[in-house]
Amino acid sequence: MKTLMYLFLCISITLFTNCSDDDSSEQITSLTSEIFNIEAFEDSNIFGTIEYFKNSNSTITIEVNLVGTESNQSYPAKIVFDTAADYDATNTEVAINLVPIDGNSGQSRTTFSTLEDGTSISYEALLDFDGNIVINKSETSQVIVTQSDIGQNILTTNTVSYPLSEVDVSDISGTITFTERVNGEALAEISLVGSPEGGLHPAHIHSGSVATAPGAIAFTFNPVISKISKTNVAKLDDGSPFGYDDVLSVNGYVNVHLSATNLGIILAQGNIGAN
């Protein structure tokens, strides 16, 4: 991995767009570049980097480099709108279809100047893009092998965690962790211990504290599925802005419920923010 990162830390290189949306035999000079990590999805063990190049002809080149890919396999890749936590394979809109990653080399290179809908995009706009990159196992499979937030959705090092203690069911507990994004929003990750595999459990931020419960629901998380939930935090259920800094000061607590039809049974609970 260190070797891979080293090879692509250069600020200015010369590219040949021999495999791109804007196919051309002319030589293009890169004026600057930025590189970011691509994380493995669950236990795929495939990871790497994505690098953006600002070209002298006003195009952008994206180069993906992965390790752990299988020989003679082709991995479809795309940049989609919104965060990875919001991703829905059926409904999420594709922003840019990338050239598939060659499993033999683990590499792909795409050069473009517009999004799929024809909208022009600049290098600077791509660096601030509200999206994430998704790479699938094959053209016929929706199985994700790597997925990472990009642009303004990239996670910072600012993070805070709160314990979730057992309530109505013995030996089920967990944690909730909030991590700040570049744009000030947050990724919320709920992790349970002791809950059954395959369970689907609603979770919310409630107003007030555990001591004053029950409180009204202020924010709804994506359900906890098989012990894990990931949710983008940008606004409350009523539409009010609610980002990372607001989490730190909120007068609230988190409940994880047994099911949508058994909200009265609480699996885990914990104070957050000001509490």
TrEMBL record:
InterPro entries: SOD-like_Cu/Zn_dom_sf
SUPFAM superfamilies: Cu,Zn superoxide dismutase-like
Domain of life: Bacteria
Protein family: Belongs to the Cu-Zn superoxide dismutase family.
Name this polypeptide is given: CHRD domain-containing protein
Organism: Olleya marilimosa
